[in-house]
Structures are given as C-alpha cells and as structure tokens.
Design brief:
Blueprint: H1 2-9, H2 12-23, H3 30-36, H4 40-44, H5 55-76, H6 82-93, H7 95-104, H8 115-119, H9 126-143, H10 146-156, H11 158-165, H12 173-184, E1 190-197, E2 204-211, E3 214-221, H13 224-239
Antiparallel strand pairs: 1-2, 2-3
C-alpha cells in the first residue's frame, strides 16, 4: 500500500503504463513494477519514504532469467553439449546483452534515481540498466507465474538469442579478455576482490583484474562473477585501445 500511495503521488503512473506496453506485459499490481525501478541511490534523497531498493527483485530476476535461458537453450539446441550451452547462456544473461535489451526499451528514463546518480550518467549506466531489467523480470514473476514470465522473456530476448546463437564460437567476456591478454602480453589475467559492501542480500563486490602485478581495470556487481565480468569488459576495451 505504501508503494502504491507513493506511485499515485508521483509522475510515474503514465510512465509505468508506457513501460508495460514496451515489455508486453500488463501488471495486475503496478506497485511491483514501481518497486523494480527503485535504484538504491534514490533512497538517499527519500529516507523518510519507507521505500526499499529493487535489489531483492534483481536477485530473484537473475535466477528466473538463468532458468529460462537454460531451459530455452536445452529445447532449441538438442545437439549442443553442456559446455556450448553454458557459454551461450553466459552471453545471453551477461551485462552487455541485458544492457542492449534495456536500451531497446529505453529503460533508463523509467528508473528512479538520485539527482547525483542521474547527473553522473546513471540513466545510461550499463550496470544499472542491466540490474533494473533483472528486477523487472523478478517483478513479472511475482505478479504472475513461471509460464507467463517465460513468455515475456521469449519476446524480450528473441532478437539477441537469434543473434548470439548464430555465432560459431561462444565466448564469455572473461574468455575474450583472456585471449586478448595472452595474445598482446603473453599473460593470463587473474582477478582479486577489492571490497565487499552491504548486507548479505544486497552485496556489492569490487573486483580488479591484473596482468602479473599490473592492475588493468576494476569492475563492480552484485556477485563476484558479475564484478569480474564487468572488470573484464573494461579491461578488454583498454587493451583493445577502445577507450
């Protein structure tokens, strides 16, 4: 009820209607979608609102997405072995792909951010957009059931699934960076966790990737795997002279 009251007092209601059309799902309880859009930075400027961030929804959405991807690949590609399906699944659920889908939805304009986060490019931030998309998936699951959620994911990920599955070689971001590092430097990268912050259900990890003793890049995420992936993406850009 608190979320719904806040929703009705804000300008979010028309935006939620628009977003539901974009994701092709009508919520029975719009407050769940509203909850999925609340980035933790927003709470810093609304401490008396009794709102909570979307991180629990993100946690759930991440698990639902992985289950959908696993089942979909198992059904669509009966000739793929376990290793091939694992690598392709990694590409489907990785930050890069989630960010691309979020951009197609213009998701950035719907997220509840602090002014500071917004001024620092939060609405186009790769990690924020990917995490919010996962939170929305969690919200859909809570609002409906597995079958309906998977139907939404079938449509949302249709283009990326077709594009990624057409590749002859499936490599996750860490594998890509390892190949570049070995080719250019002759060194295999290693990762080190710099920090862990937040309670157990809202952990944020900072990870650095090194070539020998040289730190190439750092990344962050709500799991060590996500943080390592983020670090490897940044490191790939640096070694490829893209930034």
């Amino acid at each position: 009820m608190v979320l719904l009251a806040v929703l009705l007092k804000t300008k979010m209601n028309p935006l939620l209607k628009e977003l539901q059309k974009l994701i092709n799902y009508q919520f029975k309880d719009e407050a769940k979608l509203f909850q999925a859009l609340i980035h933790r930075s927003y709470l810093n400027e609304h401490k008396s609102s009794s709102l909570v961030s979307n991180e629990r929804y993100e946690f759930l959405g991440d698990a639902v997405l992985e289950l959908w991807a696993s089942g979909t690949l198992f059904k669509l590609f009966p000739s793929f072995n376990e290793g091939k399906m694992t690598n392709l699944r990694s590409l489907i659920v990785c930050t890069i792909n989630l960010h691309e889908i979020a951009n197609e939805l213009d998701l950035g304009k719907f997220i509840m951010l602090s002014h500071g986060e917004e001024n620092h490019g939060g609405r186009t931030n790769q990690s924020i957009l990917a995490d919010t998309l996962e939170a929305i998936i969690g919200a859909i699951y809570l609002d409906s059931d597995t079958k309906k959620t998977f139907m939404v994911l079938d449509k949302l990920f249709s283009n990326s699934l077709q594009k990624l599955s057409s590749k002859k070689i499936y490599k996750d971001p860490k594998s890509i960076f390892q190949e570049i590092a070995q080719a250019k430097k002759g060194i295999t990268p290693h990762y080190k966790t710099i920090s862990e912050t937040g309670p157990d259900h809202q952990k944020n990890f900072q990870v650095a990737v090194f070539l020998d003793d040289e730190k190439i890049a750092t990344g962050s995420g709500n799991s060590k795997q996500r943080a390592e992936e983020d670090a490897s993406i940044r490191a790939t850009k640096i070694l490829s002279n893209l930034v």
